[in-house]
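for the record, two folds in this file. i put them one after another cuz i was lazy. first one right below, seq on top, structure tokens after. the second one comes after a little note so u can tell where it starts
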Amino acid sequence: MDLSVCIVSYNTKDRLRMCLRTVYASRWDGTFEVVVADNGSTDGSAEMVAAEFPNVRLIRNTGNVGYAKANNQAIARARGRYVLLLNPDVEVARDSLAKMLEYMDGHPAVGVAGCKVVKPDGKLDLACRRSFPTPASSLYRLTGLSLLFPKSRFASYNLTYLPEDQIAEVDSVMGAFLMIRAEVIAKIGLLDESFFMYGEDIDWCFRAKASGYQVMYVPITSVVHHKGSASRKVSRRALYEFHNAMQIFYDKHYRPHYNFLVNWFVGTGIWARYYWKILQNSMRREKYVSK
């Protein structure tokens, strides 16, 4: 088996159907399987998969166990040389799977790769290529320097100074489309389930790089991310989980290397941003999480 496509669904029936149709429409001579872990959807997502895509290996959870845990359930059943984490609100191009697998086969030092991810309006989804959220890059973002100078190193987190169509080694790609070697998973372990619905992709990439593997942004093909469908109406819980993931990542990978003052500043900044986003949400009709 060449590839195992792992998808976590939660009340995204229509988007999931679209996603699966594009996966099965792929032009490729290789072998692949699809594993869907449904997190207790109440919109008939699991029933739709069972009825319309009988070849999918379906996992039915009775409740929402979180993105990382559900993906780990799917990965545990994966039989491919590669695993692809794919969001249910992503449309893959007909050549996406073939081109990415061909690239990985030709670059054995690469442990993790992601392709170009665009929004429905054609604009780049900035999260598809990132640096780690170090104290410095976080400061540039929180102070607005990354927005004021998008073509400078102040924009190190979202790497907006890099051409969109340039292959580049990065710190992290996004979990909406993340291809990883099975041998890398065997070495670094599964996703950290401390992350409920955000941050697990950056953590995985951090661990892969720490183990000597390259993480690559490979815009030789592109997919469309209907961002927001997987978490349609962002609640205060989702806002909390997003900022809590930032705190978990920092505590896990950076806190031991910095002094009390820096750690205090970072923690204060994370949770000040959380309360600011709650305030913004309360004044807007459409709720959101700004990544």
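(here's the note) second protein begins now
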Amino acid sequence: MEELRVLAPRLPSPVSELVDDRLTGAGVRVVLKRDDLIHPEIPGNKWRKLKYNVSAARDQGFRTLLTFGGAYSNHIRATAAAGYYGDFDTIGVIRGEEHLPLNPSLAYAEARGMRLTYLDRTTYRAKTTEPVISDLHQEFGDFCLLPEGGSNKKAVVGCAELTAELTEPFDALFCAVGTGGTLAGIAAGLAEDQMVIGVPVLKGATSLEDEIVQLQRSAYGGRAGNWRLESDYHFGGYAKRTAELDAFIEEFEERHGVLLDWVYEAKMMYALFDLVRGGAFAAGTAIVALISGSGTVPEV
């Protein structure tokens, strides 16, 4: 993403040890990979996913980026920022109906110049079909289409670069999973004795494993690396939360000074602590927890 180097991304992103008696009591060491600190407006896996996609759009002569997402999508927000700083027009196609006033995430995207449009949920499920894409071209003209969550071959390759930044030995890496691009890339870059544990934030994502394999196939020719999904920590579904999750977020911030993103990272970290508490990891296990997004929306 050479167009955005003026933003001075913090790469490699920092790594910090998570000191917590609930972990040390189980003999498990956890470090946080703070990708949320790469840049306040294009953090974490969004920088890594957009890196090669934005460069390719520029090389192909596109002036407009169009992408899809839910009302709380970090990808929508990051694409708006990439367009603002990279001199692209941006269009965000949002799942569901418009609700005013806009939530902070969509308000940020609009403030960064993104044009928001909405598809009902039935049409949104068909967003990759030719009739829907054709209608979008008819309405908005020429654009570079970025998939929901930014997950495609270029994004997978960008996310795989994270593994070279992890210089200390570890056994497992935890990451939140939306569309699966981050997991697909990271798993491909790990050693044979390491594993990625993905925590889906969507309820009933029965096709997610196949979609991740398809992403890996596009980049590497087939399933790559050791990985698995822990699918019982969605807390009701995408952008759903419970009092239990909110209490965990509050306690984590009090203990560690990190406000977890309630849509993604909070569910992942809850899963990690719950699995440790349940004895899923032997004493001596070293875990990396990937913090990809911020719990706060940046001000414009």
